[in-house]
Amino acid sequence: MPIAVDIDVMLAKRKMSVGELADHVGITPANLAVLKNGRAKAVRFATLAALCEVLECQPGDLLRWEAENTADDDVSDSGRETPVGTGA
Fold this sequence. Notes:
With 88 residues, this protein is α+β, with helices and mostly antiparallel strands. It has helices spanning 7-14, 18-25, 29-36, 45-55, 59-62, and strands at residues 3-5, 42-43, 63-65, 83-84.
């Protein structure tokens, strides 16, 4: 995926766990893990804003663009997108 997620970097800098961040942001730890591990296909602006507020950072500190790999990209078995920040 051409968008890389660096939430783990900011978590380490802030000495915060995934569970703590999820609680502060208002999403489930499972949904945060989906985003953190790069498996999410979308993120709501409200969720991104909450992450930035809690981590005291800018969106560019959490997300960066990488050139797309020409090898087979990861594709989910179902082919459906996994939204993040829906609380489901």
